[in-house]
Design brief:
The protein has about 625 residues and is mainly α. The chain is built from 26 helices and three strands. A three-stranded mixed sheet has the order 1-3-2, covered by helices on one side.
């Protein structure tokens, strides 16, 4: 889910958890926990729970509410609409410090519970909450709040994308319109704080790379409008539902126009001017996180959180190089089937130059192909899965504002079923849209990738911190593993389609190389771009956008390969151990049945299943 992501992306998608997300781009207000909220959240849990189980339920519910109030945008993007009227000021240093102090209190309360006194269900909740709090608290030492904006993720652009009502925040009732308006009214204060933080970042040497600021500037200039009616934030008024009364339409129109003209547009202009005139000249020429103060330790913290392993950058770099070599060896076999007789490593460059893999003239033609693939998968997936999500999956085009910097991605359904799971297709020039990677892309971002994992998780009876959370390695690892199922689903019979699968797998291997290269080995942006062009056959713009994504989201790109390699290794372990008793639907149920898990907990769960199945 390219989270923003939850492949995550926005920062919430980067980390795929509301709690962990606030460590990167915290954007909400810490608020006192309301006991009644926690009580209502736990009322439906098992009646035979032990006292320790019930104590854990209270801690988990209170923790999630505190995290969601601190980052209500993250809650919205993860499908929880209870905080849709809040924006928050988590980038304010005092509030951020207060929130981390609150997390330490939750950790202390959690560790006061003896794990041995918990039932099996509660013990898993305990382990997951302990992992999440430990990961989150490691970020306290690093000044993420000094980097509130990049080209991939920012609060103003996130709110602009919400304006259509087609994304994470629904706009179908007067109450929802007023909730979104309250967020718009809070945005000028957030902008003022962001500018203060970035000025402090300039003073301390914690600034974005110049290339990222250059990429982000057009977005922020585009948000500034000459009149309220021309503003993207006026879109809800243009789309007022016919069912609204005349009085509601009149009042909402007036309130939106007043908000946009009064404080919002001047604040957006102030931000765009600041970024161009003050921040851009102070931006750094380096590319990686390691160039920041204490940047190596900061990057190591990202790596640990986003892979849920203790792997070091050098180890991950070596895994990436080995995977590149393995996949290129498969190119040597596949190339001749496609009419190519050159060096295996150059197959992607050759494919990229073949006009026969193009042919679209309109965006709708591309959306129709994805729609047909979605229909085919609905018929074939029951052969590989014993549980199918009941929530539908829809295909929609990426909003125009973020098309130039976005990757195709998925957003989970709303918890109240008011919004389905959505695959967002990014189409900038239909005539240059290659067909070779469409199947594997949809397997990843659609079904059985993110949709089968995230939509199904919303249908489970889980504590809120698990239902609306997760971790990058599992979420993206599952989606990359799901791509491999195209072979068993009969979708890779054409050599060019199978090439698309291998090339996308190669991309994830290259990511291990360039992400660790830039952030841990001192690689330049240009070195990463060149590596991607040579290895993947990318043109300059595609390689540049991908590289800049990895620059903005350190470590996020590592989760795909690290997670998928673990799932594939566990599947092979189960097949070797169980032989004829092995069932692929049963294995998938084990992997997906408890929602997202750190990789070590997933491995332990699969090992228990193997032992019980012999």
């Amino acid at each position: 889910m390219t989270i923003p992501s939850l492949s995550f992306p926005s920062a919430r998608r980067v980390l795929c958890a509301a709690a962990l997300a606030c460590a990167h781009h915290a954007s909400a207000t810490a608020a006192p926990v309301i006991a009644a909220d926690a009580a209502s959240a736990t009322a439906s849990r098992a009646t035979d729970a032990t006292a320790a189980d019930r104590q854990l339920d209270r801690i988990a519910s209170q923790y999630y509410l505190a995290a969601a109030r601190f980052d209500p945008l993250g809650a919205t993007q993860n499908g929880d609409g209870r905080f849709d009227d809040q924006l928050g000021m988590g980038i304010e240093p005092v509030r951020r410090a207060r929130q981390f102090a609150l997390y330490r209190q939750f950790q202390k309360r959690l560790q006061a519970i003896l794990p041995a006194t918990l039932g099996p269900r509660a013990r898993l909740d305990y382990d997951l909450l302990d992992f999440e709090l430990t990961s989150l608290l490691r970020f306290e030492a690093f000044p993420d709040y000094l980097l509130p904006i990049n080209q991939m993720d920012s609060v103003p652009v996130t709110l602009a994308n919400f304006a259509s009502g087609q994304g994470s925040q629904p706009l179908t009732t007067p109450a929802q319109y007023r909730a979104y308006l309250r967020r718009l009214n809070a945005l000028p204060a957030w902008i003022d704080q962001a500018i203060l933080n970035m000025r402090e970042g300039i003073r301390r040497g914690v600034v974005q790379p110049r290339a990222l600021v250059v990429s982000a500037l057009p977005q922020f200039r585009q948000l500034v409008s000459a009149t309220p009616e021309n503003s993207v934030f006026y879109t809800p008024v243009k789309n007022l539902p016919a069912g609204f009364t005349a009085d509601e339409r009149q009042h909402l129109t007036k309130e939106y126009r007043t908000a946009i003209a009064g404080r919002l547009t001047p604040a957006l202009k102030k931000l765009a001017d600041f970024l161009e005139r003050e921040y851009l000249p102070a931006a750094r020429t380096s590319s990686g996180w390691g160039a920041l103060p204490d940047g190596r330790n900061w990057y190591l913290t990202w790596v640990a959180a986003l892979t849920t392993t203790s792997l070091q950058p050098d180890q991950i770099h070596a895994i990436g190089l080995a995977e590149v070599a393995r996949i290129q060896a498969q190119f040597a076999v596949l190339g001749p089937r496609m009419g190519y007789t050159g060096a295996a490593a150059d197959l992607p460059t050759w494919v990229a130059a073949q006009d026969r893999f193009l042919g679209f003239t309109t965006e709708q033609q591309i959306l129709d192909v994805y729609g047909a693939l979605n229909a085919t998968l609905k018929l074939r997936l029951p052969s590989l899965f014993s549980t199918i999500p009941t929530t539908p999956l829809e295909v929609r085009p990426e909003p125009e504002l973020t098309r130039l910097t976005a990757s195709d991605h998925y957003t989970p359904p709303a918890n109240d079923n008011s919004r389905p799971g959505i695959f967002w297709a990014v189409v900038n020039d239909p005539k240059q849209y290659s067909s070779v990677g469409m199947t594997t892309l949809f397997l990843h971002e659609g079904q059985p990738g993110h949709h089968f994992q995230l939509a199904r998780m919303h249908e489970m009876t889980l504590p809120d911190f698990r239902k609306f959370g997760g971790n990058n390695a599992y979420v993206e690892g599952w989606a990359l593993y799901a791509e491999t199922l195209g072979k068993e689903l009969g979708l890779f019979e054409q050599p060019e389609v199978y090439f698309g699968h291998l090339n996308d797998e190669l991309l994830r291997a290259v990511r291990l190389v360039v992400d660790t290269g830039m952030h841990a080995k001192g690689w330049s942006r240009e070195q990463s771009i060149q590596t991607m062009r040579q290895t993947l056959g990318y043109d300059e713009a595609t390689a540049r956008n991908a590289t800049e994504r990895y620059m903005a989201w350190p470590g996020q790109a590592l989760g795909y390969k690290i997670g998928s390699l673990k799932i594939m290794a566990l599947r092979q372990r189960a097949q070797d151990a169980l032989g004829a008793k092995f069932s692929l639907p049963a294995f998938h149920e084990v992997v997906l049945g408890d929602g997202t898990l750190p990789l070590a907990l997933l491995e332990a769960k699969v090992d228990r299943w193997i032992a019980a199945s012999r």
